[in-house]
Design goal:
With 184 residues, the protein is mainly beta. The protein is built from 2 helices and 11 strands; from the N terminus they run αβββββββαββββ. The strands form 3 sheets. Strands 2, 5, 6, 7, 10 and 11 form a 6-stranded antiparallel beta sheet that branches. Strands 3-4-8 form a 3-stranded antiparallel beta sheet, with no helix packed on it. The protein is globular. The two termini are 24 Å apart.
Length: 184
């Protein structure tokens, strides 16, 4: 049963990617709720202090966040994400497809031809180069465009996610953040 659920999610994601702009079965998915907690020890040098996401009437969102970086952080920085969706009273880990889902990024400091590895980072004024400097990182976006997604009804639901960041060859943990969210 679990394998069937994973296969269904994977097929849905692949169809979203393959069909892209070429489908009329698209709609915006909104974030209904989001909660977070820092799950690492007190001495983790990166902490999420505040996160607010407010849906707008057109389906886009207003986003505000405050991240506290307590020391300069040099490259390399590895990031691991685990995202699971609640399906039939169990959470099912989602696969990594085109950098979305449960993925490991070996070095988020790496840039491809001078472009940020994650363009969304630049849109939110998040540092795209290392070292990441000590100090607060404030993210504020009055209107964050939410894309329309094919087969959106397969994506709505309750999710849990953990993001962990590690620095250097010694794999020193920089951050651990748990999220619980609902898409409608």
């Amino acid at each position: 049963m679990k394998a069937c659920l994973i296969a269904w999610i994977t097929v849905t994601w692949i169809l979203n990617i393959a069909l892209g702009e070429n489908t009329m079965l698209k709609k915006k998915v909104q974030l209904k709720t989001v909660d977070f907690e820092n799950c690492g020890p007190e001495n983790d040098p990166v902490k999420l202090k505040n996160l607010q996401v407010q849906p707008l009437s057109d389906g886009d969102a207003k986003v505000e966040a405050l991240i506290d970086v307590m020391e300069d952080i040099p490259a390399p920085i590895r990031v691991e994400t685990v995202i699971s969706k609640l399906m039939f009273k169990s959470y099912v880990k989602l696969p990594c497809i085109q950098s979305w889902g449960s993925c490991t990024f070996k070095d988020v400091c790496h840039q491809d031809q001078g472009k940020c590895l994650f363009p969304m980072m630049e849109e939110f004024n998040f540092p795209c180069q290392c070292p990441i400097k000590k100090g607060p990182i404030k993210i504020h976006r009055d209107k964050f465009p939410v894309p329309e997604i094919a087969f959106a009804s397969a994506i709505v639901g309750d999710y849990t996610s953990t993001i962990k960041a590690f620095q250097g060859k010694e794999n020193r943990q920089l951050a651990c953040i748990n999220f619980n969210f609902t898409l409608v």
